Amino acid sequence: QVQLVESGGGLVQAGGSLRLSCAASGRAFSSYNMGWFRRAPGKEREFVAALRWPGSIPYYAASVKGRFTISRDNAKNTVYLQMNSLKPEDTAVYYCNAPINLGTMTPLNNNWGQGTQVTVSS
What we know:
Number of strands: 12
Low-confidence stretches: none
Radius of gyration: 13 Å
């Protein structure tokens, strides 16, 4: 019931920052848990962060905890992923999805979009 479009990726040096955006449309947006995932070159897609809604409770993968922050702006129907202290291993295509099963940290569907490319140089 929700359509998502990712943006904000780019090229950044190690230690830099980027903020990704996930613009949503569709019915019942406020009822969805939102999540960010990524797929690095040669690797499978992995969980990055999720936001329980309602409640605004964030969840993070251990590899990004303390560096990434997930947030939401209901007025703009947008979920953000603020990425600080970026590392070369953060290089990946980043995707958002909803709703999220917060027990498994996986989306309830497999309808992935194109994502947004993040490249971190050393």
